[in-house]
Design a protein that fits this description.
Layout lengths: L2 E5 L2 E4 L4 E8 L8 E6 L6 E6 L6 E3 L7 E6 L4 E6 L8 E8 L12 E4 L3 E6 L1
Parallel strand pairs: 2-11
Antiparallel strand pairs: 1-3, 3-8, 4-5, 4-9, 5-6, 7-8, 9-10, 9-11
Length: about 120
């Protein structure tokens, strides 16, 4: 059984930083492309960032490019999202996910087959 567990969410003032983590089990983490998504109240779940299995390539939504950094530590089966210069519009539940196919789009939810329960990130102005 694949399990993804997010942690590290919390409250932060606009302009501040936060790092969320995703611990993976039940899959060969080093062989899995991974992604971060977020969902604000009343909104659909949107792509934030993606990373290839080796960590060699990354992809970001335009809204977070230059502010967020996705990374992974395959020895620890853990993925991270470092969030800097946070804005109020970054407030959402953040989810980690494992991608089904290596060469499918990072941006599409349908290309992921395992999801965590999410961690709340709240940014106050």
């Amino acid at each position: 059984q694949v399990q993804l567990v997010e942690s590290g969410g919390g409250w932060v003032q606009a302009g501040g930083s936060l790092r969320v983590s995703c611990a993976a089990s039940g899959l060969t983490f080093s062989n899995s492309d991974m992604g971060w998504f977020r969902q604000a109240p009343g909104k659909e779940r949107d792509f934030v960032a993606g990373i290839t299995s080796s960590g060699g390539s990354t992809r970001y939504a335009d809204s977070v490019k230059g502010r967020f950094t996705i990374s992974r530590d395959n020895a620890k089966n853990t993925m991270y999202l470092q969030m800097n210069s946070l804005k109020s519009e970054d407030t959402a539940v953040y989810y980690c996910a494992a991608k089904t196919r290596k060469f499918s789009s990072f941006q599409l939810l349908a290309n992921y087959n395992a999801w965590g329960q999410g961690t709340q990130v709240t940014v106050s102005s």
